[in-house]
Amino acid sequence: MRLSYTEEEIERSLALLRVFARAFKSISEHSIRDSKEHGFNPTEFSVLELLYTKGPQKLQQIGSRLLLVSGNVTYVIDKLEKNGYIFREQDQNDKRSVYAKLTDHGQAYLDEIYPIHAVRMARAFSGLTPEEQTQLIELLKKAGIHSQHLLFR
Asked: Does Transcription regulation appear among the keywords (predicted)?
């Protein structure tokens, strides 16, 4: 494990962090605006988006996929269920596992609003060419995996 870095490497890393944080904030504002426009907080919208794009999810997996603590997941699921967007269903093969699924109402609502959200996200990233977008995805995955790996050293 490398323990020493040049001043130039340190400065470049700090600049990268600042640029990354500003870009993330700017781009995520588009998604936040969408969620609020449709009456959801960003976490609720993220849960709905996950269920819409990936299908039913175990409650335990929702938290880890969206980087949420379990208390937040329960609160958000309760609220979305109360408002008729999702429902819980027990796994028939594993009675300890519970899935969150979109209701027909939730599916229909996301069918209506998600295409608009997707276009807005495409617009937010339109400053990059398709090739640059693909490259950025790969670079961010690589940086994230490496950084996560370092946490456990």
From this structure: yes
pLDDT at 91: 85
Beta bridge partners of 100: 57, 88
Contacts of 48 (CB under 8 A, 6+ apart): 40, 80, 85, 86, 102, 106, 110
Q: What is the CATH number of domain 40-127?
A: 1.10.10.10
Q: What share of the chain is helix, strand, coil (3-state, %, to 5)?
A: 70, 10, 20
Q: How far apart are CA 68 and CA 121, in angstroms?
A: 22
pLDDT per position as a tens digit, 80-102: 999 999 999 998 888 888 999 99
